[in-house]
From TrEMBL:
A Pfam cross-reference name: Peptidase_M20
PANTHER family attached to this UniProt entry: ALLANTOATE AMIDOHYDROLASE (PTHR32494:SF5), ALLANTOATE DEIMINASE-RELATED (PTHR32494)
Residues that hold Zn(2+) 2 according to the record: D94, E129, H381
Domain Peptidase M20 dimerisation intervals: 211-309
EC number: 3.5.1.6
Residue ranges, annotated region (Disordered): 67-89
Cofactor remark: Binds 2 Zn(2+) ions per subunit.
Organism of origin: Gynuella sunshinyii YC6258
Residues binding Zn(2+) 1, per UniProt: H83, D94, H190
Name this protein carries in UniProt: Acetylornithine deacetylase/Succinyl-diaminopimelate desuccinylase and related deacylase
Source species, domain of life: Bacteria
Keywords: Hydrolase, Metal-binding, Zinc
Cross-referenced NCBIfam families: hydantase, PRK09290.1-3, PRK09290.1-5, PRK12891.1
Cofactor(s), by name: Zn(2+)
Amino acid sequence: MKALKVNGDRLWDSLMEMAKIGATEKGGCRRLALTDLDKQGRELYIKWATEAGCTVKVDQIGNIMATRPGEDPDLAPVGTGSHLDTQPSGGKFDGVFGVLSGLEVVRRMNDLGIKTRHPIEISVWTNEEGSRFAPAMMGSGVVSGRFTLQEILDKTDVDGIRLGDELERIGFAGDTPVTGRNYHAFFETHIEQGPYLEAENKQIGVVTGGQGQRWYDVVISGRESHAGTTPMHLRKDALIAASQLVLKVEEIAKAHKPGCGTVGFMQVSPNSRNTIPGQISFSIDLRHPEDDQLTAMDADLQAAVEELAVSSGSDINLKQIWYYAPIPFASECISAVRSSAEALGYSHMDIIAGAGHDACYVSDFAPTSMIFTPCLDGISHNEIESTTKEECEAGCSVLLNAMLVMAGE
Ligand code: GLV
Ligand code: MN
Ligand code: MN
Ligand code: MN
């Protein structure tokens, strides 16, 4: 089979057009899940997918499926897709590249008059980021059965707004059932979001799996009191205890290479300059590519919390709110990605995904793999996240060929 290339200019133009929705001053994007901006992004995408001849459906958790018919309608689709929601100070490519790569694949198939036996389906998964509503990967998680529809609809954001109400409000509480979804194969294209492809000077990452994650909510309760009158030895400062735990998280991650540990969200109460903090709520995110190591990190965290409760005299509530074990991708999809990169003459290497991706949950019910492309200095979840038209074209061209291998011409 002759390797085909996509139209990199058209893909880039669409990426830049989508990036206007929620554009930030430093050149990034803020398009939080289920906000008015998410609605605008979704509507633009649906317009483009419809113009490309796709049939569009929305399911009960707001996932958008755009389908290009195949010659045999009884065959399961070959799928691709990612997410349109972003971090609060996110970039232009995290997620969007995977969605618009799928669209460019369909547009290119249309240009070339390509017919496939299997239908082609591009998914936009709801709330991949997990930033406004935790945890992450909710849309794909509901479809895979990792979460129930009801538990996700009932999640609330930091202001107490219910996810299901926001879905209704923006008009994306669809009626296609979340159950019974099937793919012949699924591929997700994504920027790497890390430094390895750039360091190794490779154009394509052949993603063989994703690392596991554990997310926690922590509440530390000390005692509020006056900043000027309470002697240092009589304080129960919840922020001091929280700070010690934050450092412990770093220590635990460093002791379990290549594990990662992050405290990214924190609320201080009453958050007043001259009152000793009485209560701190924060998040912990632990990740590791090996499950036994992730379990060991969890055990170390539990032990650290017990020790700190005694030494600080504060009450510490640690609650795990999310866990999934490392995910191995399917060998036939990994091979399709690798052989497509080779056929196109792109340099490539195998890589494990450090970030969470919808593909991780899709792999519960379908053979799946991912295609990574480099990003500048390995920076993502940052407004300055950057990549080039050529890198996007390469990743999307690998996607086109891998999908064609699985969809049968
Ligand atoms: C989301 O992008 C994550 O990997 O945390
Ligand atoms: Mn992403
Ligand atoms: Mn992300
Ligand atoms: Mn992610």
